[in-house]
Amino acid sequence: xxxxxxxxxxxxxxxxxxxxxxxxxxxxxxxxxxxxxxxxxxxxxxxxxxxxxxxxxxxxxxxxxxxxxxxxxxxxxxxxxxxxxxxxxxxxxxxxxxxxxxxxxxxxxxxxxxxxxxxxxxxxxxxxxxxxxxxxxxxxxxxxxxxxxxxxxxxxxxxxxxxxxxxxxxxxxxxxxxxxxxxxxxxxxxxxxxxxxxxxxxxxxxxxxxxxxxxxxxxxxxxxxxxxxxxxxxxxxxxxxxxxxxxxxx
Length: 250
Description:
alpha/beta
């Protein structure tokens, strides 16, 4: 693990860029941790959507909130072909989305991304700022495409937020099987008028989770119109499962 940007501080939260090498791939990421204190502390992993990246505004805001309000460590990495892993010439959303569709169809893409996240977890938990506390996952849209297989493969993850995805696309069979093996608490966000993800497919994915504690929150609006209130609620949902005594005391 290498630090690529050292110690930017916003309020009481320190932001650090890093890289992890995984099977010949360089995986860029960003870590948010409270400015004071050391681990072990809960770690939350953030997965971005297609055409976005590890420092898209909503992930930065969520990462800083979880670090500041709850004392968590929070990390995001660029998905394949996104952010600092973007190929030359993929400079607009159309090119990025086309590249995402091609990557989604590539055999091995899911296993590679799971390996990228697992190597990131191992590297972060070796840090004094993080340690071996409990882990949660948050990822919508493409963050769910890769997040469901990760949570299924990673017993260290104890709670997850998914959404804006359904049982469709080239990895739908893998996603259905992986969802069925997930039993941790799950929150699922669905946009009622999503033009990309039809409701039946989204409900099919939600139904596939084996979790006893699972909830679906739906709102009017298209794919990217998730209300800010739901993002805030999802942060509290993660915190309640990762640090319940701290949340109950708030």
